[in-house]
Amino acid sequence: MKESPRHAIVFGASGLIGWAIIDQLLRCYPEAGTFSKITAVTNRQIELTETHWPAPGIGCPTLQLVPGVDLRHGDGAKLSSSLKQAVKDIDTVTHLFYLGISLCHSEDFEHAD
Fold first, then answer.
1. Which of 62, 66, 102, 109 sits 20 to 30 Å CA-CA off 54?
2. Closest by alpha carbon to 61, among 40, 37, 30, 39?
3. 108 has which bridge partners?
């Protein structure tokens, strides 16, 4: 099967749903050759051995893990610059999955009187 030029980047890859998407894509879902590369971006520091994702197989995508990317700080230019440095072949990304959430605490908001 001819290799696909598709490259998916998954933000929130260490969360429940993000983890499951990466897991399925590495198992060649929906079929072998759908993606050639998967980039898993996480907010927290994590080692690949902690993820328990399957090793890529024949016809399945390669995986790049990019831990420690905090989307909540900085502006768009700063985020763009840091992603360009951290993500190999970011210019080849064809699909984006955003599965990040940010929990806010009441003290994060200013209360109007």
1. 102
2. 37
3. none
Yes or no: say if 101 and 16 are a contact pair by the CB < 8 Å rule: no
**CB contact at 8 A, 40 and 64:** yes
**Residues constituting the chain:** 113
Q: Give the CA angle between residues 96, 100, 105 to the nearest 5°.
A: 155
Percent helix, strand, coil in the chain, to 5, is: 30, 15, 55
d(CA 77, CA 99): 21
In this structure, what token pair is assigned to residue 106? 């009441």
**Claim: this prediction has a pTM higher than 0.70:** yes
Largest CA distance in the chain: 64
Tens-place pLDDT, residues 15-71 = 999 999 999 999 988 888 899 999 999 999 999 999 999 987 788 899 999 999 888
Residues 39 and 62 sit within 8 Å (Cβ to Cβ) = no
The DSSP bridge pattern shows strands 37-41 and 7-11 to be: parallel
